[in-house]
Amino acid sequence: MSKKKELSPELKAECDAAKALFVAKKNALGLTQASLAEAADISAAAVAMYLNGTNPLNAKFAVVLSRLLEVPIEKFSRRLANEISELTSETDRVEAPTQSASAADMVRQMLAKQGKGLSDEARNRLLAAAEEPSNVITADFSRPGLVGDEIRIAHYDIRGAMGDGQKAADFPEMLKDIRVSQRHLRELGVEYEDYNYLKLVTGWGQSMEPTIKHRDPLIVDISIRDFVGDGIYLYSWDDLLYIKRMQVADADNFEIISDNARHTPKRIRREDTHILARVLLVWNAHLV
């Protein structure tokens, strides 16, 4: 039996990036390899082969992983992001099909109208995905529409601890998704590149008072996954979620600071810290 050929460094890097994101977010999102397998309609062994770099990532698994981890595909595979973008961009230029049209019918319409520039391989892949029920793409590639100047910010069902750390769990929330004016956000000094990466999370604890109070909603930017300067970050450390002020202490450590003077600063290793988002705005509500 011949030995399986190893992946190229580029394909292996994609698998490593996907695995790192999965490890960083699985506790917060309540994910397991088994749940990935169920969502992708494949075996748990197949998921392990993707994450461990035995098999290269493909478009179908990338879409499922992107949806469950709530990150864009380009975070772990620019190759697949471009491939999917090329395929889906063709469908964006097709006239709206009738409601009775099947997925395969819609793809055939697209290929007939705009498919001349696609390779045979791309055409066949599109048709195969549309005709096979298990390959139906469940991720929503369309971006939420604007109502005037409004955008919708999804509420993450997680809470970041401003204290001893939190595991993702069920808990009552006052807010769900919110709609807000982009102009108003800009006037408040909120800076972001793409509103689709803005999310709402909940602060939990007292260590960041008075800046952030217990159960204050926070608008965060999940496109920021690395340290980009002093600020308040949502991060995972030792399998727990935190919201703290973060600075660089030295080449190996972050300085973690609580705004509440009763909590002393501490250092944590940078290699053990997984930044999930940067806090942009505290959505305070004060009783009057």
UniProtKB/TrEMBL annotation:
Query: Is Transcription among the key words of this record?
Result: yes
Q: Which SMART domains match?
A: HTH_XRE
All copies of the HTH cro/C1-type domain together span 27-76
Q: Name one Pfam family in it.
A: HTH_3
Q: Where does the signal sequence lie? A: none
* Entry keywords, A to Z: DNA-binding, Transcription, Transcription regulation
**InterPro entries in UniProt:** Cro/C1-type_HTH, Lambda_DNA-bd_dom_sf, LexA-like, LexA/Signal_pep-like_sf, Peptidase_S24_S26A/B/C
Q: What is this protein called?
A: Helix-turn-helix transcriptional regulator
